[in-house]
Amino acid sequence: MEENNSRIPRTLPVLHLSSMVMFPYLLMPLVVTDEESKLVIDHALANDKLMAFFLDLDTGGDGDQIKKIGTAVTILRMLRNQDGSISLLLQGTSRIRMQKISQKEPFMMVDVQVIPEPLSEDSEVQAYRTIALELLEKISQESSVLNKEMISGLSNIKQSGRVADIIAGNIDLQIHDRQKILELVDLNQRYKYLNNCLAELIRQMRLENHIRSNIQLEMNEDQRRYYLREQLDAIRRELGETDEVSKEILNWQQRIEKNDLPEYVKDVAVEELQRLSVMQPASSEYGVIRNYLDWIVNLPWKKHSKDRLDLRKIERILEQDHYGLEKPKERILEFIAVKKLKGQLGGPILCFVGPPGTGKTSIGRSVANALNRKFIRMSLGGIHDEAEIRGHRRTYIGAMPGKIITEIKRQGTANPVFMLDEIDKLGRDFRGDPASALLEVLDPEQNNSFVDNYINLPYDLSEVMFITTANSLDTIPPPLRDRMEIIEFSSYLEFDKIAIARKYLIPKEKEINGLKDISVTLLKSALQELIHHYVREAGVRNLERRIGSIFRKIAREVAYGAKGPWRIKGKDIQT
To answer: Which residues contact 463 (CB under 8 A, 6 or more apart)?
Structure first.
């Protein structure tokens, strides 16, 4: 304290306000708007950041009512606001006495004398201090404004004068009482006056609380209706009748019993339903719990579609839907053979890798059709947020499960064929690493207890047949690649493309373009011309587009009245 006093200049700029008293040691926020105060702050910032702070009871502004005892304050922080005002954080340094005014315009400067804080304390001061802390404890019991941690912290401060100033600065006292405590340098006198103020404050608070407890406010119409409605609800409960909320609770109970839920899921659902039953429907938590119940009750925990395990029929369907692709078909049939013998899927996840348009995604749909399972396709391209896989925690507003659980609930079975497209195009940023989140999903050793952040219960994904697709292996993280069996899809040769066009693409495009009953023939020379000069790709996607383009031109001629038939040769392709 002596070190702080020694560096206070003799002459200081004056900040004088009518609504505030500063005490040494205390931190105080302040916003100033008048021009004189702004000049004082600018001067202080340019010179040691020190100001003199005095109470000014003169509303006319001529300075005759400025109190002579004030506080030297330091500017700790300053912020200029957009509306022109200045926000400050001030800290009191020491008591000061105004000796003379050395300048009035454009702002006031005064000569000051530092008032040292008494260092010696007798037993009477200690007794006063103990009483002050007891009175402060009673104030905290009457009102929740005071922080009890602050009260316990005051007992650890050695200087009694500092304790008195902290109490006076933090209690809601009249402005003249605060100024009086600031002016009392003698500790006995300061504590005596402070304790009288605290005792009067306790009497006033107790009187106000007594009056509040005895006043019966007249109920308005809404309150009266609420009171009558509560009475009606109580009567209905006594009679065994149910209101809308009770009907909803009963409906949830029936759904929990009806749906075949695992025991650990049922226990959580019953617990959440009990919480819901004691809540008001208008509560925000009511909607959160109801949404959560809807998810966990309606998830297909044990609902499985019956697999078709006739290998010959499955092979026939795959051959019918796809030309070539011998190795992928062979591996899929092995997968299904294991399922037939063992009763569950085995081995790693299949990953189809190859150029675009080679049938990776469409063969997944054929597998679902062959197995008589629901088919889910989810594109991973561009996903950056880990919550897209794992979901958000229920504590967040608008939280939802991840796409894995969402799609399984939408399809309604626990054993669909789940195709994860474009696994090589996963992103990664500050929202997490989706590739790492997929490790648990695609690991046969772990996915029997996959935990979504929103559901927060283990869900068995081991019966889901996951198939992933990628154009390149280079961008798939090694830990993720390690959990998958890679099956290469090679580029189609010319004779492959011609066979695919004749068997699949031409019939499909004829139907799409309204030419199903029209005689249109694309000769082999026409297909060769397309493949040689118009389609340079590994797959057949562009070939399909070119065939569709030819059929649209024929459709236009048919619409104008042309009868056909059309035989498209190689030389006709250019036109």
So the answer is: 304, 344, 345, 414, 415
